[in-house]
Give the backbone structure.
Amino acid sequence: MRDWRTALRACHHVLLSHGLAVPAIRAATRTARVGIALSLHPLGPATPSAADRQATHRYDRLRNCWFLDPLYGRGYPVDVWELCGSEVPDVRPGDLDAIAAPTDFLGINYYFPESISDAPGHGPLSARVLAPHAREITDLGWEVSPSGMVALLERVERDYRPGELYITENGSSYHDLVDSDGAVHDIKRRDYLVRHVTALREAIARGIPVGGYFAWTLLDNFEWAEGYTHRFGLHYVDFATQRRRTKLSGAWYRDFLDGR
């Protein structure tokens, strides 16, 4: 199902359900630390042109700020609200106050940056996401950019001061093969982890209050629209037998956590 108004309504009710859940969780468990995790992306214009820069700004206001602004008491971005016209969700009195319930942390699911171009008539924002032209992409077509994660963390901390930040998802899909000896030498995924953890250390050194990092994911699993065709796991799963094998990336991550 692809419908702009339905998508915006769904976004609003996801945020509202979060806002209503926060005080309920606190009432049930006084010591609970409560937050939310968002899928956010650093954005850049496809070219230095004014048109592409303006399109990037418009797209950012929906891609990132449409969620961050109401969570931190600013309501929905007025400029995007006006561009969406009659498609905007019905916001009842009290909704925005509920969404802005104070939280203890913000989780960020980071995978890749996006390049934006001006595209008159392409949706209400007249903006388009271009396919990556980077030298390095994953098998799912996502650009590998540890520096993008640092830039995103810096931006969120600077603009919103959300408190403690967590990278709640970060990982890569590659076509894994089981060698004759039963090993899975996923060198690209191992290197991906090494570089992103190193970049996170850089972010912490710059004073960004990062509280933790979660690799996506422990096991190969069902990946949304791609089903079982893409693997993100640190452990290889034979879906026919359910046998699991620790990949090279999983062994590295285990040793890293153990301080080896």
Q: What stands out?
A: Helices lie at 4-28, 50-63, 65-71, 78-84, 95-99, 146-160, 187-205, 248-257. Residues 23 and 30 are 10 Å apart (CA to CA). The longest strand covers residues 164-169.
